[in-house]
Amino acid sequence: MNKSVVISKEARYRFTQSNVVKLEDVPVSNSSIKAQYYLKKEGQKITLICEDSFYSFYPHVPNFDDFLSYNDTIKKQIEFQIASSNGMPVNILNFDSLQQNWKIAKQKDLLKHNFIKMAPIEEQDKVLQAGDLEYSNPDSFLKGISSGLFYKEIFGQYLVKNVEDFQDESMDTVSNFFRDVTIYNTLRHAKVREDENFITFKKVNIIDNSRLDEYQLIKEYNELYKEQLGYGFTEFAYDYRVTGTINKDDNLIQNMSILLSERVKNNLSCNVNFELKRIDL
């Protein structure tokens, strides 16, 4: 009996991400991430290896940037099984190895890191408890990493189907400003252009305002921001825009831009810019 041949595809990526929070158009905090990843696709198995990552924050938190880079090394290589229907991860194939990495880190290097050593005991316990939860089972681990834009968009329908066959997606996300508010979105796809080498597509959100908890928005706004700003709650908005280019030679992403903006009009804004590019192997 002939066995089907699984074709291996490889790519190396770099991305930059900047996050800026403003109160009344005045920047009050910002952060940035730069990272390099290697991707290998073998059928419905995707391997991602974090080769480098760099973080920066303002206001500066001593040793926190190095701690996050160290944390990336614990989950340096992740092997995913993706769904044939939408290209999204459904299982972590090497979870046992990742869980063991966490246990070893917790017993050895983690507590020696300057960020942990300088933190109060209560904060140390919170970090360890968060890690224990993340590495407790594959579903928790997958939920944790899927909040990052790189992991959110490096997976998707382009891995398993043609752009013409892309379907609308749902995207539920927690607000950056309001801890108990979930934002429900539908993502609509469209092909922008195509030439002999590349296909460019876009993805745009439509927020479901009927499910937006305006009472909770106003309640948390009054608790967290009204005293500082003086102004009352105005109007909430959330935008999520993706433009991606697919290389037709191997159907992997060539480059991608993401713009994310969450706002309370005239009062609060959080703007995220994400740029991904494919580099030489």
Structural account:
This protein has about 280 residues and is of the alpha+beta class. It has one domain: Lipovitellin-phosvitin complex, beta-sheet shell regions, CATH 2.30.230. It has 8 helices and 11 strands. The chain has helices spanning about 65-75, 95-105, 115-120, 120-135, 140-145, 150-155, 215-225, 225-230, and strands spanning about 10-25, 25-40, 45-60, 75-80, 90, 170-175, 180-195, 200-205, 235-245, 250-265, 270-280. Strands 5-4-3-2-1-11-10-9-8-7-6 form an 11-stranded antiparallel sheet. The model has no long low-confidence stretch (mean pLDDT about 95).
* Count of alpha and pi helical runs: 8
CATH class: Mainly Beta
Q: What is the CATH fold-level name?
A: Lipovitellin-phosvitin complex, beta-sheet shell regions
Number of strands: 11
Overall tally of structural domains: 1
Average pLDDT figure: 95
Radius of gyration of CA atoms, rounded to a whole number? 20 Å
**Main sheet record:** 11 strands, antiparallel
Percent of residues in helices comes to 25-40%
- CATH architecture designation: Roll
Written as H for each helix and E for each strand, in order along the chain, the element string is: EEEHEEHHHHHEEEHHEEE
In the sheet with the most strands, the strands line up as: 5-4-3-2-1-11-10-9-8-7-6
Report how far the terminal alpha carbons are from each other.
35 Å
